[in-house]
């Protein structure tokens, strides 16, 4: 590890628990709702000089065959409330929350995000997501759902309006009168007049301009509409393309779109979600990775994944046995609250071909297609792999998704981060105060 990298990478920490990533059976697995769990992971990430801490969020408990899916998180507190509390126990770490544009309103959400940015002194980020399903919509007054094109149009207008609100206070619009202990207004607080397809807002924003001007915008959509939305709007893309070739193709496609929105490549960071398994030797790491995969995909989880693709009850089949000779029910739906598969027939055909080629059982098949760790090896080889990934143009950094709550990041910070720092591939100290600074967006 003697060659100095040309590019420094970025790192973020994802609080685990969504989908089947977390190994619940491990005795070290802790609470998903105890504030101590959030504090531990956030402080570990800050000790590692990570760019930000990332919270996912769902607006409805997912169901399998009409019942709450008991292998998933059964409770998840509201993201911005948790992040506001974490602002008091961290100093430099960015704080990113997932908040939905389909079932929120811009003025109210812009206030909450601007408040978090003030409380954290410029460390707030918003992961912009949409919802397309009526199942989630049943939890809200207007119910229903939006077509794909409409939900992205609403999201784009939502972000534009939020930025209008954040920018309506000029940098010198408020001065602190230290003696009186009050804020003295002296011009520069503009009125917002927005009349769009989805929103109409007339008035003045109540929150002063935040230390970094506005929160960082994160986006995770992968459709053509999602990629264009990211190129026009986002500062960070939370990508699912974690392999070298897929990551390089994704980054090339999204960043080539930036120019038509008047943006430059450094103004958008691509950070795929990744997992890792470490060992003292390559063999140890491979064995550990295989064990983690088996823990993540137990027998019931394997059947649940099969049912999501096949669209029918598959509980009568042995997860340790072969894939049954049953065709998918393309009109059936046993799983609700998950992102629907684009082509279940094609997915089922690909799974069957893979199972036949490798002689896989149902559980082995699901492990093969869903449970793979991104980086496996000794700390030295994982550091090399990450650097090579960024050098090859497959990513600007990574969002680490550990398999344990809350201590799953500890080993990476203790064993891999120092090697990245020694190599000059990652910061040894924070160079700025805000999340914009950490991400080098300006």
TrEMBL record:
It holds the Pfam family Bac_luciferase. Gene3D superfamilies: Luciferase-like domain. One of its GO terms (molecular function) is oxidoreductase activity, acting on paired donors, with incorporation or reduction of molecular oxygen. Signal peptide: none annotated. FMN binds at residues 98, 152, 223. Residues 28-394 form the Luciferase-like domain. The keyword Flavoprotein applies. Keywords: Flavoprotein, FMN, Monooxygenase, Oxidoreductase. Belongs to the NtaA/SnaA/DszA monooxygenase family. This is FMN-dependent oxidoreductase, nitrilotriacetate monooxygenase family.
């Amino acid at each position: 590890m003697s060659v100095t990298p040309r590019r420094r990478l970025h790192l973020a920490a994802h609080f685990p628990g969504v989908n089947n990533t977390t190994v619940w059976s491990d005795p070290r697995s802790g609470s998903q709702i105890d504030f101590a769990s959030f504090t531990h992971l956030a402080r570990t990430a800050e000790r590692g000089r990570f760019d930000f801490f990332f919270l996912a969020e769902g607006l409805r408990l997912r169901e399998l065959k009409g019942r709450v899916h008991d292998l998933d998180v059964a409770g998840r507190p509201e993201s911005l409330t948790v992040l506001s509390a974490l602002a008091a126990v961290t100093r430099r770490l960015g704080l990113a929350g997932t908040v939905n544009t389909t079932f929120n309103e811009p003025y109210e959400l812009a206030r909450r995000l601007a408040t978090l940015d003030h409380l954290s002194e410029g460390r707030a980020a918003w992961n912009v997501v949409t919802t397309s399903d009526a199942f989630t919509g049943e939890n809200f007054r207007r119910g229903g759902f939006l077509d794909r094109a409409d939900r992205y149009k609403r999201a784009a207008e939502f972000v534009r309006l939020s930025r209008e609100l954040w920018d309506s206070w000029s940098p010198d619009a408020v001065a602190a009168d230290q003696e009186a202990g009050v804020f003295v207004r002296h011009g520069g607080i503009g009125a917002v007049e927005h009349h769009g397809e989805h929103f109409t807002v007339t008035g003045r924003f109540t929150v002063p301009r935040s230390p970094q001007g506005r929160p960082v915008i994160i986006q995770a959509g992968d459709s053509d509409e999602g990629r264009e939305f990211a190129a026009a709007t986002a500062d960070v893309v939370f990508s699912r393309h974690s392999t070298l070739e897929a990551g390089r193709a994704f980054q090339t496609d999204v960043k080539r779109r930036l120019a038509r929105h008047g943006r430059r490549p450094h103004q958008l960071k691509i950070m795929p979600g990744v997992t890792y398994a470490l060992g003292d030797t390559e063999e140890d790491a491979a064995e550990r990775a295989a064990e983690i995969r088996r823990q993540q995909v137990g027998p019931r989880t394997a059947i649940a994944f099969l049912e999501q693709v096949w669209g029918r009850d598959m509980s009568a089949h042995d997860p340790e046995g072969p894939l049954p000779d049953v065709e998918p029910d393309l009109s059936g739906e046993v799983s609700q609250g998950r992102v629907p598969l684009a082509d279940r027939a094609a997915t089922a055909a690909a799974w069957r071909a893979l199972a036949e080629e490798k002689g896989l059982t149902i559980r082995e098949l699901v492990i093969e297609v869903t449970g793979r760790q991104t980086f496996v090896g000794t700390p030295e080889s994982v550091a090399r792999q990450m650097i090579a990934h960024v050098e090859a143009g497959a990513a600007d950094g990574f969002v680490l998704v550990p398999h344990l709550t809350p201590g799953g990041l500890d080993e990476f910070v203790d064993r891999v981060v120092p090697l990245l720092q020694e190599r000059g591939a990652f910061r040894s100290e924070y160079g700025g105060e805000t999340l914009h600074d950490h991400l080098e967006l300006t």
